[in-house]
Write a structure and sequence with these properties.
The protein is of the alpha/beta class. The chain has helices spanning 62-69, 91-96, 113-123, 128-141, 157-169, 187-202, 214-220, 238-242, 247-255, and strands at residues 22-33, 36-47, 51-55, 77-82, 85-86, 98-101, 175-179, 206-210, 223-228, 231-237.
Length: 270
C-alpha cells in the first residue's frame, strides 16, 4: 500500500514543503531476516528542524528502520542520507551528526552515569574537560545528579533511558533519533524530556521519535509517519495525517485489527 501524502503517493510532505532541506532521507529501504521481511521498501523524508513521530503496531518495522537509519544495521537494499551524508558510504561523518537512543542496545553499565556520558563525548572527539562539563549539565537537566556516581547497572529502567538520552545529546548532534524514549519513564521525567526535545527542535535540531502513544505524538510532534508491515501507510504533517479526527482514529483506520469484543463470558465475572 503506497504512503498517503498531500502531494500524492510519491512520498511525505508537510508544511515545510517538498523542497525543504532534509535531515533524514530513506529511499527504498529493505531488510529481511531469513524469510521474514521486516522492512519492505520504506521511503521517508524528515524535514530539518521538525519533530517527527514514527508510529506503528508491534512488529511494524520501526526499530529495524531506525537501526538502519542510524548505521547500526546494514540494509539489504536502499539508501540513507543524514543531512546529505550517505550513512553507509561515509558512516563516520554521518554518525557525528546523529544522537541515537536505540531500543535494546546495551549500555556500558559498569561505568557510572557520569563516566558513561564523558566516555561517549570523548568517543565523539570532545576533550575530557568539555565532555565533563557537558555531562554535569546533562545530569542536572535530567535529574540524575544524585545517581551520577553509581554504576549504570544499578539504574532503574527509566533511569537507563535518561542516561542513554544524555549520552545521545552530549556531542550536540544535529539529528536526534530516539526509539521509545518514554518507555518506563515516570510522568515528571517524561514531561521534562519533552521540554528538552522541544527546545532542541526549536533551536534548529531535528528529532525523530518512535512511540506507541498516539496522544503523545499528536501533542508533541509536527510530522508523523504511520508504519505497518514494514511499509509507510501515511506520512506528512500531523494535521494532514490525522484528518478531521484524532491520530489514534486514523491509525486504527489504516492499520486495522481493532476488535470490539469484551472477551469470553468466563472472563467477565459472574
Amino acid at each position: 500500500m503506497p504512503a498517503e501524502s498531500p502531494t500524492g503517493p510519491a512520498g511525505p510532505a508537510g508544511p515545510a514543503g517538498p523542497d525543504a532541506p532534509l535531515a533524514l532521507e530513506l529511499r527504498g529501504l529493505r531488510k529481511s531476516f531469513g524469510a521474514q521481511v521486516a522492512v519492505d521498501g520504506i521511503d521517508l523524508a524528515v524535514p530539518a528542524g521538525s519533530f517527527f513521530g514514527l508510529v506503528g503496531p508491534n512488529g511494524a518495522g520501526k526499530t529495524t528502520t531506525l537501526s538502519m537509519a542510524t548505521g547500526l544495521l546494514r540494509p539489504d537494499a536502499g539508501a540513507v542520507r543524514v543531512h546529505g551524508l550517505d550513512v553507509w558510504a561515509d558512516p563516520l561523518a554521518a554518525k557525528r551528526v546523529i544522537g541515537n537512543l536505540a531500543d535494546g542496545v546495551e549500555l556500558f553499565d559498569r561505568l557510572t552515569g557520569e563516566q558513561l556520558i564523558v566516555y561517549t563525548g570523548m568517543l565523539f572527539g570532545l576533550d575530557r574537560a568539555t565532555a565533563a562539563g557537558r555531562a554535569s549539565d546533562l545530569l542536572d537537566l535530567l535529574d540524575l545528579t544524585t545517581s551520577a556516581g553509581s554504576p549504570v547497572s544499578d539504574y532503574s529502567a527509566g533511569m537507563r533511558k535518561k542516561i542513554g538520552l544524555a549520552a545521545a545529546l552530549v556531542h550536540s548532534p544535529r539529528l536526534l533519533v530516539l526509539d521509545e524514549p518514554f518507555e518506563s519513564v515516570d510522568p515528571v521525567s517524561a514531561a521534562n524530556i519533552r521540554d528538552i526535545l522541544t527546545g532542541f527542535a526549536r533551536s534548529g535540531g531535528t528529532v525523530v521519535v518512535s512511540s506507541h502513544s498516539m496522544d503523545l505524538v499528536q501533542r508533541m510532534c509536527d510530522h508523523v509517519a504511520i508504519v505497518a508491515g514494514g511499509r509507510v501507510l501515511a506520512a506528512g504533517s500531523v494535521d494532514e495525517v490525522r484528518g478531521p479526527g484524532t491520530l489514534e482514529d486514523r491509525f486504527l483506520q489504516l492499520v486495522g485489527g481493532r476488535r470490539h469484543d469484551e472477551g469470553p463470558e468466563w472472563l467477565r465475572g459472574s
